């Protein structure tokens, strides 16, 4: 099949936005990148698109949210790509639909498409899914079920294995090449046929709710950010570490670490079988203060937030009763000179707000690498405490006799020969 004429050299770029679930490293000291295979897929797609089109020199064939990209402030760079890309390519996997960040990216692109809905409310076709790990169609959330896509052109091996299976097995190299070229042609075809206007980028896309709420993992987890937003900072506090919402807080922000701390927490949680629902202290207050837990939770507490009267009151309510299913992490950063100078005062403020936090499910961390080391253990302990504390509900209906093993004579009596 010959692809349609490619858009002209003055059209918007990038051609596509690759939306994928970050795989966190289990060992921050290791240099190998757990996302390197996704990066290879991205690079191969870009190479194909550059060969299939007349994309002008210097224009981006695609965008992938790659960590450690010096000089690019996340999430401003990411929001710009969502506002200008021609095609949105979600990379399906179980981890993808458990990712709050991926859900926000999808929601932001849907918001942009909504400006081009026809009179019947139908959105233009600008989402081209790809399989990283195959999923049964019935397991997809409704928003993904509504996206029509076919895999026939990419071959049966792709349908059964996904890109990850093809890329990892050397004997499937030809099937991988076929699948990537077919996907690149599909991206170019959709970009040529469907034109959506560029929007003004806004980092406030983080406020969008994930459309994956009906995708239910086995172990949901609340990740609560007790931090101020830029508009609610304590007087004189350096705004460098904060975002437009509490969820944008990153106490370890630098050129090589620009993602919010909650995004790291969600990645770590996903790697250990949890789906994180990220929210502010105000948004999660009712569930965190309930005496009947609905699930394990972890609370990320900015020491500066504890100097605000409203946050103090909410934290004391959460602290009441020593809720062991709520893990507490208090990050410190001595490279932040203001925090280092005020550490003693801030330490007292934290202790006054959370005097009853159990030691086994709470921790102070002094670096992002320490956060990666500590959080998995704390998540496990909070989950174990939840399962010990959660009420058990017997099934509806009349009680049944307690089952027991039958000896051979019993079985013979019930099933005579």
Automatic annotation (TrEMBL):
It comes from the Bacteria. Residues 404-417 have a biased composition (Basic and acidic residues). SUPFAM superfamilies: Toll/Interleukin receptor TIR domain. It holds the Pfam family TIR_2. One of its GO terms (biological process) is signal transduction. This is TIR domain-containing protein. It comes from Microbispora oryzae. Residues 16-133 form the TIR domain. Residues 389-417 are annotated as: Disordered. InterPro entries: FxsC_C (IPR026367), FxsC_N (IPR047603), TIR_dom (IPR000157), Toll_tir_struct_dom_sf (IPR035897).
């Amino acid at each position: 099949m010959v692809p349609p004429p490619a858009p002209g050299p003055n059209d918007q770029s990038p051609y596509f936005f690759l939306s994928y679930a970050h795989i966190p490293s289990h060992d921050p000291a290791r240099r190998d990148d757990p996302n390197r295979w996704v990066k290879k897929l991205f690079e191969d797609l870009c190479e194909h698109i550059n060969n299939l089109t007349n994309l002008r020199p210097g224009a981006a064939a695609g965008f992938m949210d790659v960590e450690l990209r010096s000089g690019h402030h996340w999430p401003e760079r990411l929001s710009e790509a969502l506002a200008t890309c021609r095609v949105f390519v979600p990379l399906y996997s179980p981890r993808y639909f458990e990712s709050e960040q991926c859900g926000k990216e999808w929601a932001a692109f849907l918001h942009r498409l909504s400006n081009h809905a026809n009179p019947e409310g139908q959105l233009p076709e600008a989402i081209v899914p790809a399989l990283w790990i195959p999923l049964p169609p019935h397991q997809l959330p409704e928003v993904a079920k509504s996206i029509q896509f076919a895999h026939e052109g990419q071959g049966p091996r792709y349908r059964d294995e996904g890109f990850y299976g093809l890329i990892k097995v050397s004997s499937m190299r030809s099937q991988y090449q076929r699948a990537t070229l077919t996907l690149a042609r599909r991206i170019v075809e959709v970009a040529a046929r469907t034109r959506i206007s560029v929007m003004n980028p806004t980092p406030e896309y983080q406020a969008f709710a994930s459309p994956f709420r009906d995708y239910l993992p086995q172990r949901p987890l609340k990740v609560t950010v007790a931090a101020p937003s830029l508009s609610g900072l304590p007087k004189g506090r350096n705004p460098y570490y904060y975002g437009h919402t509490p969820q944008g807080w990153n106490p370890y922000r630098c050129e090589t670490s620009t993602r919010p701390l909650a995004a790291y927490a969600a990645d770590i949680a996903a790697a250990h079988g949890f789906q994180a629902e990220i929210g502010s202290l105000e948004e999660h207050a009712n569930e965190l203060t309930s005496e009947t837990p609905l699930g394990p939770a972890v609370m990320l507490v900015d020491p500066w937030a504890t100097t605000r009267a409203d946050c103090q009151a909410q934290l004391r309510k959460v602290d009441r009763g020593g809720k062991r299913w709520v893990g507490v992490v208090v990050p410190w950063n001595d490279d932040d000179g203001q925090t280092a100078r005020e550490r003693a005062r801030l330490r007292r403020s934290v202790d006054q707000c959370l005097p009853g936090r159990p030691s086994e499910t709470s921790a102070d961390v002094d670096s992002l690498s320490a956060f990666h080391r500590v959080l998995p253990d704390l998540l496990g302990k909070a989950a174990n405490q939840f399962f010990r504390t959660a009420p058990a509900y017997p099934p509806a209906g009349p009680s049944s006799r307690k089952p027991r093993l039958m000896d051979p004579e019993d079985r013979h009596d019930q099933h005579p020969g």
